[in-house]
Amino acid sequence: MDFDLSIKGKCILSAEDNEVNQIVLEHTLAEQDIPFVIVSNGEEAVEGWEALDPLMIFMDISMPVMNGIEAIKAIREKEAVTGKRVPIAALTAHALTGDKERMLEAGADYYLTKPINPNLLLQKIAEIADTGSTRAIL
Asked: Which of 47, 71, 80, 97 is most buried when burial is the number of CB atoms within 10 A of its CB?
């Protein structure tokens, strides 16, 4: 997959296979002028992480080719070599007892349930950027 390397180190990477959720993410991030890349499966998420060095990743858990948990584990294994760690927020419709713990054990730092709430998404970005403002990550 070809990535726009002009946003390397400055973007949010989102792995999401659902078209409606992709649109919500796209509109939410674009309205805030936050550089982003949306991919459709976990394999592309790992490739995007390697190519773009994103500021953070929103990772859907149920995706084709490679699911989000497998992608998170692959990224964390590769990070063990680099010594860097990107914040990863699991985005999922899985909200049963134990789901949050399973995703955190896999290496996710945060857990957000779907449907995607744009305000909560921006709040999480600001929290991860540790500034209280999404503008600070640009």
From this structure: 71
